[in-house]
Known about the structure:
8 strands; 22 helices
Amino acid sequence: MENIKQLLNWNLLNSAFKTNGQKLIAHKTKEIFNSNIDTLGNIALQQTMRSELPKQELVEEIYDKFKNLEALPIAVLLESFTKREVRLLVWSLDYKGEDSILFGTHFSKFISLVIEYWRDSYIIPLWFVLLKNWEALNNNKARFQEYLVLFEKKCNEYEKSRKDVLAIKTHFNFWQPKGISSFVNYLNKNNIQFNAICTSLNFNTNILGTDYYYESFILYLKTIDKKDISKELVESVLVEIKGVNRKKYKLILLSILITYGKFSKTINTIQQAAFSTIGDPIVKRHWLSGHLNEEEIELVESARKKLLILMNKKFIKIFFSKLVQDPRREKYWLKFIDDIEDVKFVGNRLNYSILKNNQEISKYVDARYTITRSNQSTSALIFWARDYVFVEFSDTGAVYIYKKENFNIKTKHIEKITDLKSWPRGMAVIKSVGNYWEFMPEGTHAHMGENWELRLNIWMKKYFYN
């Protein structure tokens, strides 16, 4: 009763909230609660170190004003703009991309305006525009140098106490043309996680979502030492990637996590995040972006294929352990896992439930399982590899082998398992003819005897790999 009274008398101050909460909550819950308080505290701190971007209509208005006057003598511009308008002009520098003031022919007049009406409040927007246009400025070295001369001079002249501006000044080498390498080396050397760059270095959170931020994030993942990688670090990286609002960078960042071996211990966590963030790797369009260069396209495609291999490996293992206990067939087909492009299941509702309830593959089952109308217990595993389609069944029986062009069965419309057994009895891919074996390109192969794998291997060399 006393605790309830305390609860009713709570003050909504952070200290009172925390103290009273601890009196009512169990020890383990307190740990979670305290962690959440710290997280909220960090968020609150970051919000105090963020400069709000001006409204779009103001940006358009000040851009148009400059463009209308830019061809006139500088004296006219100096008379036409106020200090407040010049600050707004800094935020508007890159408006309209290639037609922007930043890359225009009258950029020198912008510099004259800034110098004439200088205020320290211009530093943050100048820094933001630099980071936001990092890639474009690096491709225009003359303009980059012109911009940097002004920015460095004004940072060096700054003598006040605002923390985020002092951080920019202190780490000015990070903003030089090759500064990303210096920045990432500093993070790695000081063991600073990427999601903590603002709180650890006092950076204004306007850095988030800029070209500089994304390119730094990519280099950070590529260069971080394997010994510094933990499950917690990978999870924090995945949270950061989830907040990325540009598909190009989501694809690149996740692809690095998937393809770089140093992250392999957490590949299951990475795989689940990639599936929920990008989509099923079997749907190729999910893993495309028109903004990738050739090297990046290759990286992303390599990641997509690796995810498919990991998923298909799980499908085969689970089929031959849960729907049928046959480690011999499982071992055989896993040898060809790198060549398997897609996997489907066919069976009754009970078998569907067995797979759906398996946490390892639960998310992926619906897109790959066809429930038959008949309730027969036999289920089928279909996989596409190279120029062939292979169908295995939960009864021992035989594997059915089809050329892709002859497999005309629409898996979504299979009503009964026997629909997958198109080959007539006796149409085997391997036939005994006198003292030798005759191999056919399509048909069935029974899982009988001690040497069925050996005979199938010979068939594979003759047809599958030819």
